[in-house]
Amino acid sequence: MMAYRYDDQNVFARILRGEIPCKKVRESTHALAFHDIAPQAPVHVLVIPKGPYVTYDHFALEASEDEIVDFTRMVGEICAMTEVQPGMGGGGYRMVANSGEAAIQDVPHLHVHILGGRLLGRMLRDPGT
Question: DSSP characters for the chain?
Fold first, then answer.
C-alpha cells in the first residue's frame, strides 16, 4: 500500500503510551483529544488517532472503518464540548491537519488542530496581495 513509515518514538506515540503527560479533553477507543501545549487561540485542541498513522491520507486509506468513524465523531464531540459549532451558536472553528514536509508537519503522527474562540482571519494570504 502506502510508503509511510511510522516512527513510534514521536511525541504523540509517547503520549499515547503514557510516557509524556497531556491535558486530556476526551478519549475514546480509537482517538485521544488534548489541549495544545502552545495554544494559538482560546480553543486549541488536538485530536489524534491511537493507530500508527502519519498523515490524513495514510489514515483515510489504511484505517479501519471503526477507527475512521471514532476519530471523526471525536472531532465533532470536541467542537460541541468547546462550544465552537457555528450551527449551535458558536463562532466557528478551523480544523487544520499539516501533512508532510511542504506543510511543515512537526510530528509524524496524524493530528488535527481544532482552533476557535476568536476571529482567526484568513488561513492563506490572498495571492492578489
Answer: -------TTSHHHHHHTTSS---EEEE-SSEEEEE-SS-SSSEEEEEEESS---SHHHHHHHS-HHHHHHHHHHHHHHHHHTT--GGGT---EEEE---SGGGT--SSS--EEEEESS----SS--TT-
Smallest CA-to-CA distance from 79 within 10, 26, 15 is with: 26
- Record the pTM: 0.93
- Mind telling me the catalytic residues? 111
CA angle 54, 58, 101 (to 5 degrees): 50
Provide the pLDDT for residue 1.
47
11-116 — its CATH code? 3.30.428.10
Q: Which residue has the cell 503510551?
A: 17
Structural domain spans, the chain: 11-116
Q: Which pLDDT score is estimated for 15?
A: 98
